[in-house]
Amino acid sequence: MASVTSATSAATGERTAELKGFREVQRLAYACAEAVAAQLKPGITERAAARMQREWLRERGVQDWFHLPFAWFGDRTAFVNFRIPLQFFPTNRELEPGMPFILDMAPVHKGFTADIGYSGCLGLNPVHDRLLADLEAHRELILREVRERRPLKEIYEDVDRLMVRQGYANRHRAYPFGVIAHKIDPVRQRRWSPTLFGFGTQSLKGLASDALHGHRDGWSPLWSPYTFSDHPPQPGLWAVEPHLGFRGTGAKFEEILVVTDSKNPQESAFWLDDDLPHVRRWQEEKAA
Amino acid sequence: MNTGRGRDGRRNRRPGHGQPPMTGAGLQGARERRVSTGGIELCVAELGDPDRPTVVLVHGYPDSKEVWSEVARGLAERFHVVLYDVRGCGRSTAPQPLRGGFTLEKLTDDFLAVADAVSPDHPVHLVGHDWGSVQAWEFATVRRTEGRIASFTSMSGPSLDHFGHWIKKRMSRPTPRRAAQLLNQGAKSWYVYMLHTPVLPELAWKGPLGKRWPSILQRVEKVPGGDYPTASLPTDAAHGAWLYRDNVRARLRRPRADAYAHCPVQLITPTGDAFLSQRLYDDLEQWAPELVRRTLPAKHWVPRTRPDQLISWIAEFITSKEEGDPAKKVVAAGPYADRFGGQLVLVTGAASGIGRATAFAFAEAGARIIAVDRDAEGAARTAEMARLIGAPQAWGEVVDVADEAAMEKLADKVDAEYGTVDVLVNNAGIGLSGSFLETSTEDWKKVLDVNLWGVIHGCRIFGKRMADRGQGGHIVNTASAAAFQPSRILAAYSASKAAVLMLSECLRAELAGQGIGVSAICPGLVNTSITSTARFTGVSAEEEKRRQAKAARMYGLRNYPPEKVADAILRAVVRNQAVVPVTPEARGAHLMSRFTPRALRALARIEPPV
């Protein structure tokens, strides 16, 4: 679990293998998101979309989850009027033309976890396009400041300020503990992997153990605006999910940021994979 | 109540208004022709290029086609505008005998004759006001005009058939609400009963009423004087009484069951109409499936009092039907889109916080936005996002509201390029906190310059242009709960905001007679960037930073979103509210300032934990 953090050369090979495992499951999850998004059509419900993600991944060998797949349609992408966490679960809201949607899933595959968020819209939606384009600045900002070893709380506030400047509302604030990111760990594979309120118990165990260690050492596996996140980035894998909201339209990406204890800034933090739908989209827009 | 100012002079800044006022004999520059139908000669006037889409304007009672003069001139720049005097009015001849000569069937004959004469090959766009709208509803719902009408804009005139069904529905099952609606409209229709008495209305119109009518219109209905009403008023009104006598009883007793509109309909409802309840149109979607609703804070004679707004809505509606994308909605999606669609809204301090949220809320209602701020990037960003969410046009302007010359320049530019502002939101403000004794003159100047002088410049410069136009408008000033809640650490800020509050109340009284509303918005703790840019006096720069951060954190925990303030601002404009405290603490303080001022003063002595 802590092997990513290891700086010894003996562990380097193991680390590479581990990152490869994480990258594979992240790609699998994004492939699932793209496959399901391509099948969405008017009238389909959030529940149906969540089921499609679940089935697609189960067919490809996923047995355990960090959390079960979520799907949000329309103004639920911006968590409008969300008061209790149960509202995150998929509803019978039907997809309509022009509606934005978000697919969010966290499968565990061969012991590796991914947690991804995929934003799209059914047909044309200029507001949604704009939100997605503006997420790029957040991806750059987060990486830059993590490399500068700024306290996570301050980075959170900087992301917040950028959102306000862009005219958006911070919607990751609605997540449990208001987190913009959380740590993820490899998960031991068991034959029986129950879930609790949509979260895999194995993964929750990992998170709890991180929280315990972190509590002793002064860090937290939850990257929040609160004082318990007032510490420099802790080496490990972080699933980062900035979530923008703008008048009933929401957009996010979620992907794994690798933080190491290397002195070299380039190696001290990097995105696990740059070949992801939202990154490709930005590159295509720049090329066009 | 008429101020006696030259109303003609007021409008001469608008294009097309350099012409001398027209006489009662017709419209300036109009081509006239006479169309005969069923023994009647109708006087028809045409303006604009005949190759453009044809708009037929039908006047009401007791009017002649000249009621449309302002609207016709505005529309003639883009359309082929046709007006005619309804039979018995203006320079059209009257049927003989009068009784039975004004039925809706005969009026439909007249319309078809005019339409065939002016636009034989293409359907026409109909616009009706008052009785013009009543008869146009008939045109738009009978079989024989099918294919001759491309669109219909109705104002202040329901279909008599729909009206009949409306009454029947309320009579057959009179719930308290329905009974109240019935009584309300029944009281508003007093003149209809009067017109059904024989001879007396004719005598009155040809006698004292006809003489006094222009001044009554000016005083009660706020219709600007000048070239309207025309000299033919007494005979127009006397003949027109037969419109009521020939149709009202028959249609209300036996309304047609198939009065469905066969063309798209736009309904413009003046909210202050003394003769027609807004509830009359509640079930209108059932009769007109493609209904577009607009509401206008004005009295009955909107073609005289709000010509610019009518021109813009009529033109927009016709254009959308002629060349628009049929899938695109004419009216924006947000709340109050019927009220603010196409209006020009200027918001100061629009680069962040309440100003930006307000600009967005107006944009969602389909208004055109001018986002003004010192922060060029922020203002441009607001304008850009406003366009994305529904504003047909939006511009970012960089101006410091405290700079009078810059504000004058902005006003000139706005006037020349965008038009007259319909809704002005003086929102720009800065925060200042600290003990009075430690607040320097410089600090005082700075806060008063923006918070008070900015509002004064805005109200004076833009408010004057609004009043000069003479077609109503609204001014919103962002005050604060601090305006009535004393505090030991907010002397300068509270003083500036209290001044804004009283300024708004005084201005409201002054402008009420001109149809311009003024609202003061008093938000409490709202999560905006005002805290992180606020000045804290009497402390070191470091301590100031710390306090800014702490205040920002406190406001963040309170987390009252500026979007809710923006919603309150739109609501205040629609309802023309005077003082609007927003957030529970502001409402509480407002109540306490009235009923328990001593308790509020005691609270003011507590040092807040900043």
Key words describing this protein structure:
heterodimer; A: 288 residues; alpha+beta; Creatine Amidinohydrolase; five-stranded antiparallel β-sheet; four-stranded antiparallel β-sheet; 14 strands; B: 610 residues; alpha/beta; Rossmann fold; 2 domains; eight-stranded mixed β-sheet; 15% strand; disordered N terminus
Largest contact between protein chains?
A-B, 10 and 13 residues
Give the biggest sheet of chain B: 8 strands, mixed
CATH architecture field of chain A = Alpha-Beta Complex
Helix content of chain B: 40-55%
Tally of individual domains of chain B? 2
CATH architecture of the largest domain in chain B: 3-Layer(aba) Sandwich
Strand order of the largest sheet of chain B: 1-2-4-3-5-6-7-8
CATH superfamily of chain A: Creatinase/methionine aminopeptidase superfamily
Percent of residues in beta strands of chain B: 15-25%
* Total helical elements of chain B: 23
Shape of chain B: elongated
Helix content of chain A: 25-40%
Under CATH, the topology of the largest domain in chain B is which? Rossmann fold
Which regions of chain A are unreliable across 5 or more consecutive residues at pLDDT < 50?
A: 1-7
Distance between the termini of chain B: 52 Å
Shape of chain A: globular
Molecular structure report:
The complex is a heterodimer of chains A (288) and B (610). The termini of chain A are far apart. Chain A is α+β, with helices and mostly antiparallel strands and 288 residues long. In chain A, helix 1 (9-39) crosses helix 2 (46-59) and helix 3 (126-147) packs antiparallel against helix 4 (152-166). The model of chain A is unreliable at 1-7 (pLDDT under 50). Chain A has helices at residues 9-39, 46-59, 126-147, 152-166, 201-217, 265-268, 277-287, and strands at residues 64-73, 100-109, 112-113, 116-121, 169-170, 181-184, 195-196, 199-200, 222-223, 236-240, 243-246, 249-252, 255-259, 269-271. Chain A has one domain: Creatine Amidinohydrolase, CATH 3.90.230.10. Helix content of chain B is 46%, strand content 15%. Chain B contains 23 helices and 17 strands. The chains are: A alpha+beta (288), B alpha/beta (610). Chain A binds chain B through residues 126-127, 130, 164-167, 169, 246-247, and chain B through 352, 356, 360, 364, 378, 381-382, 385, 388-389, 529, 561, 563.
